[in-house]
């Protein structure tokens, strides 16, 4: 059974702190292995990638078969039932429409000295997207990573998806096709990240790598960070539901389990101002767990990391939520907008009982790649902004240099950087001549 | 003497590649030492910070003197000459005005199904800024880090600046005061980063850490990344000047030296379509190096990493520039705006011969914390965006759930996530009843 806490109990602060700092993730130390793999791929390119794929995925590839051919992709896509294809297409359309609004604006203006200032946004030229194989191979994640990149204007988008024993998920290929992915390689693990970052004879290097992965992939992304850009290192998923007593306990229970079923390390928390309602949700979870397909995983997550917290009012709920900084936050209350206004840290908010979190995982439009493990305190979900970068622009006129140049010279000299000062002084002298 | 290359020479591609991949930075492996320091600060808090400060900075502190008092700050600030104070204030005003335009907009709209979608930006609650002590203790960097944070709305901004042997730079304190910094601690190194990330009895933890530092600081920032947000890990500074023959060779030479004087690992490159002009700039650099205060540093940088590249036309210059993805790019050409339009990767562009790069270091308005080592391919300079984060918003109505919910259910089932599907289905069933 999960923890039940009441904000009025004497040891609440200690219990809540324990919940806040609970270590949910095993981080096996694979760094040395990953360093060797990256060095091997840098030194031997395709040969190394092919050998490692044979070793880890029991798959014999050649440079010519590292990538899926267009024919193979089309053949796999053709096996997808129409209802699933249409669902993917609807999801893609909605994700594209949402993210298109994130494209940032260039700016240019003249300041009071006559100088022109501004900035310009440009897309990353080439991006790589890692897609896990096996159990966690989610076509929805392909859409969520690939579409923001394409909306940003990334010209070349490559996917790496391992196919252990040659087993391919046609939905992943279809999602990539719908999203406009340019290249799909059937490789995985640290070797795939190394190939994307450094390139091989067959795989051109990219500038940015995103997407989830296991401990090897995460360690490899950390290692190549700097050589290329990376997205966040995602931890186990989590949901916080804030619900009043006017909800159907069964709905809330299912919402909690929809997070718990991801992973034994996932975390589902309910905060309510109605202790009796909290009890009913606990009972509903227990009941639903009896028949749920993934009851072993969901049950372990709920038992080890689940919690029901009873508060006196919704202001207390908001304050606790801000300390948790949850990845997903459902507000199943009478005035969800009013409560949302009190939330300062959260990856995504789902407003009202008609908005189950699963809508955001698939089809709502916003991204489902979101900050975990309290990192919503300082970071955001994946977006178009992850695939663009800003160049600042400055254009002085002789008059504007005369107006502000002397101050730059003063500061340069105060920092002991003479040539900085001289580069301004030479121009000022010409004006004074 | 630096390298001189002509794009028409037979081995140009090999030489340019060597320039592109030259390792300019020693990265001493201090990771084990840093891990110990962080563990010590986490375990012993103030005591560890105080002991390490005594060891590394030869400074005896107590919990009460870890931070500068308001009186100390004011006393130091009072020693700054008026001309320097006014220059700092002008710089702060201009940086504030530029960055105020970067504040991102919230968004909310209704889609065609009646669902409300959008996002909201909120500031990071607390940020920490590292300021190096000694030679590289730059008040301008305090302004460039602190002002974007304050513009973003960060409530609590703490600075760590080591004061080895008690030596304090009054300009750094004044810059912090002008920028509105809330707390200034006289500690440095990995112990300062650990204190900011994990907190001590005296120093409350922050959510995001920015600012430059030595190898220990950089390693510590990498280690605490995830627990808190960090900015980029900055490498040695660099400038690329693209100049035609209509420039004063002395101006361009000084601009190149203003980057070279930062650091022996800095890099200054000139690309010109006028070989004779390139020669003149080389001669001017040699001449100016005879008297420059920091001639040992600037001379070593120019000798080891400088280059003059002669191209046939400015389109070639732009193409090479995009491969270099320079931190700073000066366009000293007849039509700088036209050339800038061909630039796809650069941290900051300075347009026209009246815009020396040093203006951007101090007073132009844009940030001087910029992506180095070709990372402008995938990242941007520091900005207000580094101190805010986005929460996505989704609010379904019964009708919008009826419209798109079934597709979410299909996708959930295709991914084997039954509870995800059930959380949608339970609501759809209620509608159909």
From TrEMBL, chains A, B:
<dbReference type="Pfam" id="PF00815">
    <property type="entry name" value="Histidinol_dh"/>
</dbReference>
<keyword id="KW-0028">Amino-acid biosynthesis</keyword>
<feature type="binding site">
    <location>
        <position position="262"/>
    </location>
    <ligand>
        <name>substrate</name>
    </ligand>
</feature>
<dbReference type="InterPro" id="IPR001692">
    <property type="entry name" value="Histidinol_DH_CS"/>
</dbReference>
<feature type="binding site">
    <location>
        <position position="328"/>
    </location>
    <ligand>
        <name>substrate</name>
    </ligand>
</feature>
<keyword id="KW-0479">Metal-binding</keyword>
<dbReference type="GO" id="GO:0000105">
    <property type="term" value="P:L-histidine biosynthetic process"/>
</dbReference>
<feature type="binding site">
    <location>
        <position position="237"/>
    </location>
    <ligand>
        <name>substrate</name>
    </ligand>
</feature>
<comment type="similarity">
    <text>Belongs to the histidinol dehydrogenase family.</text>
</comment>
<keyword id="KW-0862">Zinc</keyword>
<feature type="active site" description="Proton acceptor">
    <location>
        <position position="327"/>
    </location>
</feature>
<feature type="binding site">
    <location>
        <position position="259"/>
    </location>
    <ligand>
        <name>substrate</name>
    </ligand>
</feature>
<dbReference type="GO" id="GO:0008270">
    <property type="term" value="F:zinc ion binding"/>
</dbReference>
<feature type="binding site">
    <location>
        <position position="191"/>
    </location>
    <ligand>
        <name>NAD(+)</name>
    </ligand>
</feature>
<feature type="binding site">
    <location>
        <position position="420"/>
    </location>
    <ligand>
        <name>substrate</name>
    </ligand>
</feature>
<feature type="binding site">
    <location>
        <position position="361"/>
    </location>
    <ligand>
        <name>substrate</name>
    </ligand>
</feature>
<keyword id="KW-0368">Histidine biosynthesis</keyword>
<keyword id="KW-0560">Oxidoreductase</keyword>
<feature type="active site" description="Proton acceptor">
    <location>
        <position position="328"/>
    </location>
</feature>
<protein>
    <recommendedName>
        <fullName>Histidinol dehydrogenase</fullName>
        <ecNumber>1.1.1.23</ecNumber>
    </recommendedName>
</protein>
<dbReference type="GO" id="GO:0051287">
    <property type="term" value="F:NAD binding"/>
</dbReference>
<dbReference type="InterPro" id="IPR016161">
    <property type="entry name" value="Ald_DH/histidinol_DH"/>
</dbReference>
<feature type="binding site">
    <location>
        <position position="259"/>
    </location>
    <ligand>
        <name>Zn(2+)</name>
    </ligand>
</feature>
<dbReference type="GO" id="GO:0005829">
    <property type="term" value="C:cytosol"/>
</dbReference>
<comment type="function">
    <text>Catalyzes the sequential NAD-dependent oxidations of L-histidinol to L-histidinaldehyde and then to L-histidine.</text>
</comment>
<feature type="binding site">
    <location>
        <position position="130"/>
    </location>
    <ligand>
        <name>NAD(+)</name>
    </ligand>
</feature>
<keyword id="KW-0520">NAD</keyword>
<feature type="binding site">
    <location>
        <position position="262"/>
    </location>
    <ligand>
        <name>Zn(2+)</name>
    </ligand>
</feature>
<dbReference type="GO" id="GO:0004399">
    <property type="term" value="F:histidinol dehydrogenase activity"/>
</dbReference>
<comment type="pathway">
    <text>Amino-acid biosynthesis; L-histidine biosynthesis; L-histidine from 5-phospho-alpha-D-ribose 1-diphosphate: step 9/9.</text>
</comment>
<feature type="binding site">
    <location>
        <position position="420"/>
    </location>
    <ligand>
        <name>Zn(2+)</name>
    </ligand>
</feature>
<feature type="binding site">
    <location>
        <position position="415"/>
    </location>
    <ligand>
        <name>substrate</name>
    </ligand>
</feature>
<dbReference type="InterPro" id="IPR012131">
    <property type="entry name" value="Hstdl_DH"/>
</dbReference>
<feature type="binding site">
    <location>
        <position position="361"/>
    </location>
    <ligand>
        <name>Zn(2+)</name>
    </ligand>
</feature>
<dbReference type="InterPro" id="IPR022695">
    <property type="entry name" value="Histidinol_DH_monofunct"/>
</dbReference>
<feature type="binding site">
    <location>
        <position position="214"/>
    </location>
    <ligand>
        <name>NAD(+)</name>
    </ligand>
</feature>
